[in-house]
Amino acid sequence: MPIRLIATDLDGTLLRPDLSVSPRTRRALDTARAAGIVVVPVTARQPRGVQGIAEAASFSEWALCGNGAYGVHLGTGEVLFEVHVEAAAQRALAEALSERVPGVLFVSVRQGGEVYLAQAGYADIAGFGDHHREPADLGSFPLDEVLAEPSLKLIVRHPALTPRELLLEVQALNLGGHAVTHSGSPFLEVLAEGVSKAWGLAKLCGTLGIAQAEVLAFGDAPNDAEMLQWAGRGVAMANAEAEALAAADEMTLSNAQDGVAVVIEELLRQPI
User: Fold this and answer.
1) Are 101 and 89 in contact (CB under 8 A)?
2) pTM score
3) Domain 87-192 has what CATH class?
């Protein structure tokens, strides 16, 4: 079955290590679009973090942001779907995890990724690249206020523990009502229960009338694993983490070597 949609992660996958879109990759994406293939960025970033990349990669249609929780049209601003972690679920997680792991900090992402409410102390350990905005703009709020409303994404971070270490602590709580993943950033990302990049991609494909077998997906991080496994053809980067490699059907070159472009070029040499 021919490929009708290319779903690609951004950081560590489509983007080079300096976060640029190479000329080769841009040409490959443009050629795919000219051949009638839909190209969709699927990222942990919120729309603001996609904007500069969208211009460089000529993304102007659908994008899946927030690890699949937010489907938005980059050209019209139309929101296809937006799914939140319920306030009760995130409060149960925060209270139990704070008791288990003192010092853990939280950020609520709301309003289509435009509003960040960070717990007091979080901005002190954050950098611009973590959320593609100045840490001071995240604010400094009491935990009760951070947890008061549902979150498009709830960020969970500890000053000393790695995301993998913190994930083990969250899993040990054995709580429901949420999904949790990480994307290579120094924190965990909590989503509504059942939500993942695969979930969001399946909803978009259903809207577009594109079959699972007609999807080619690229990724490198643990939050890409479900998408790589779901897609008809899942491709992990050579620089991918173990979860992505295990979920993929095959591996391409690294993001520094334009691995996405290599696969697309080969695909387009075949009859579509």
Assistant:
1) no
2) 0.93
3) alpha beta
